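Field reference: sequence -> structure
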Amino acid sequence: MKIAFISDIHGNATALESVLADIDKKQVDRIVVMGDIAYRGPEPQKSINLVRSLDTEVIKGNADEWVHRDIREGEVPDQALTTMRQEREWTVKHLTDEDLDYLRELPEEVTVRLTDDIKIHCFHATPDSLFDVVKPTESDEALSDRLMQKNEADIYLYGHIHLPYIRHINGKCVANLGSVGLPFDGRSEASYLIVEGEDDRFSTAIHRVSYDVGKVKQQLADGEYPNQEFLTNVLEHGALPQ
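Structure field:
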């Protein structure tokens, strides 16, 4: 069995199409989508439509929660709240009520079987929160306590931080997928993860995919997207501004 896991599309349908084409070449058996589909990119509705066309498991991310119910004080830095709410309003204007209902009703976690012997627990940020941040630099003990305790599984996968990594702890695996549409690790390429397994053995690998960043930048300009300079900079450099 071979499963592709994708997350943090952020309205970047151009990157998503490139990732789906790459996945198709690798002949996976299944795709699982792990949240943050529409907010903070130029094509929110197309991104949702592409995800829905996969007819697969999809879980909710913090940005999906924001789109359908707004961003609350304390969930982002105070100085960013007004701008991020403007981005949220722009996104909502480009979606239908049906799109908002779809995001609202997404589950917050899913467990999938890679084989009869191997279970994978998937969540967006942590098993208990859509918003908590767990960095790749955390100790083994911290990763285990925060990500690997709620459900008994062999592999634990999450998104949210846009920083891909794979760690092995006490015979189990924890990994972050990185981001399809808005990577933060210094590479302006989409990121996703494939897990392959047979019986009680498995392997995990991060995959990077180039896409037309210039096209996405032009879409932001043509759509008069708010906070455009910030987002363009992130797309160009694959990282948050210092």
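Note: The CA atoms of residues 68 and 97 lie 9 Å apart.
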